Amino acid sequence: MTRGLMTVLKGSLKSVRDFTALEGINAEELAALIDLAETLKDVLERPIKKVPTLRGKAIANVFFEPSTRTRNSFELAAKYMSADVINFQSSGSSVEKGETLWDTARNLAAMAIDAVVIRHQVAGVPGLLADLLDVPVINAGDGMHEHPTQGLLDLLTVKAHYGRIGGLQVAIVGDVLHSRVARSDLWGFTKMGAAVRLVGPPNLLPSELEAPMTSNLEDGIRGCDVIQVLRLQHERQTSGAVPSMREYRERFGVTRERLEKWAPDALVMHPGPQNRGVEIDSEVLDGPQSAVLSQVQYGVAVRMAVLYRLLGGTHDI
Ligand code: CP
């Protein structure tokens, strides 16, 4: 084990049992998790990506909503640390016969599970489960509330690019109202000393969030260091907030021309999945300023860090 890793592991981390939101985590704890993820990402660059640190532990991935990045990266993170994993998806399970969330969780926990990773369409479910279960609960996205491991991976992506987070200007652009990523990013970047502004149609900017807001894309992204583009969430639009995809793109679409004019040096991120040609153009998504695949790569490392912290991994890395 390297001296750097020893320092990270022996750092002043408080005892944490669950990981359900970034809002309640202090800056010191966040910084420690980012440091740990930075160290663990070295494991992903080894020819044999396997360490014994969570050997003998069992993790349940419990997903009530679709996922590509989060579910698979939690599974890989657990497997790279030698834990066993079960993947539960509500579709095809006894939930379809009417079994409640609580009974589902209790039954999974009875199989000697050591941690539950849960994604649910209702805000607050991971926090509720954390109160009810005796094992650590990790929020993999709950309704429009938070997606804390996405927030962490976004922080790590920015730190890896700029070498720091404090002092940067971060614009979160798009459908903020329906976005759990926007909330976790707002808490995370603000705690780490960045200045965050929210950009989007007025009816998709929730007034209760404490951040400067604008509905003018140029004002919002001009001179920014980081632009996090959000997915327009068709499935959560209930009030016809956006007249049409074409109009949305005309006012808020991040195009190559706009980026060149207003933020030529910004790091462009998107949590995925993307609506190409709506909130972001393919030329930007696949262009030199895009960090979207780094985000996915760092997602494995931050999920390793969170599992390690909550399950008390051995130092054998
Ligand atoms: N960013 C994210 O949560 O992606 P998935 O829905 O694919 O997990």
Structural overview:
There is one protein chain. With 317 residues, this protein is of the alpha/beta class. The protein contains twelve helices and nine strands. The strands form two sheets. The chain has a five-stranded parallel sheet with strand order 7-6-5-8-9. The chain has a four-stranded parallel sheet with strand order 2-1-3-4, with helices on both faces. The N and C termini lie close together (6 Å). The protein binds phosphoric acid mono(formamide)ester.
The gist of it:
The chain has 317 residues and is of the alpha/beta class. It is 38% helix and 14% strand.
Order of helices and strands: HHEHEHEHEHEHEEHEHHEHH
The computed structural class is alpha/beta
Query: Which percent range describes the beta-strand content?
Result: 5-15%
Shape: globular
- Biggest β-sheet: strands ordered side by side in the sheet: 7-6-5-8-9
The largest pleated sheet is described as: 5 strands, parallel
Average pLDDT reading: 92
Cα-to-Cα separation, first versus last residue: 6 Å
Per DSSP, the total helix count is 12
Ligands, ions, cofactors: phosphoric acid mono(formamide)ester
Helix content: 25-40%
List low-pLDDT spans.
1-14
- Radius of gyration using CA atoms only: 19 Å
Extended strand count: 9
Please describe the topology of this protein:
Blueprint lengths: L2 H8 L16 H14 L17 E6 L5 H12 L3 E6 L11 H9 L5 E6 L4 H8 L4 E6 L5 H15 L6 E5 L6 H12 L3 E5 L13 E2 L2 H5 L4 E4 L15 H8 L3 H7 L4 E3 L12 H4 L6 H20 L6
Parallel strand pairs: 1-2, 1-3, 3-4, 5-6, 5-8, 6-7, 8-9
Q: Which keywords apply here?
A:
317 residues; alpha/beta; 5-stranded parallel β-sheet; 4-stranded parallel β-sheet; globular; disordered N terminus; binds phosphoric acid mono(formamide)ester
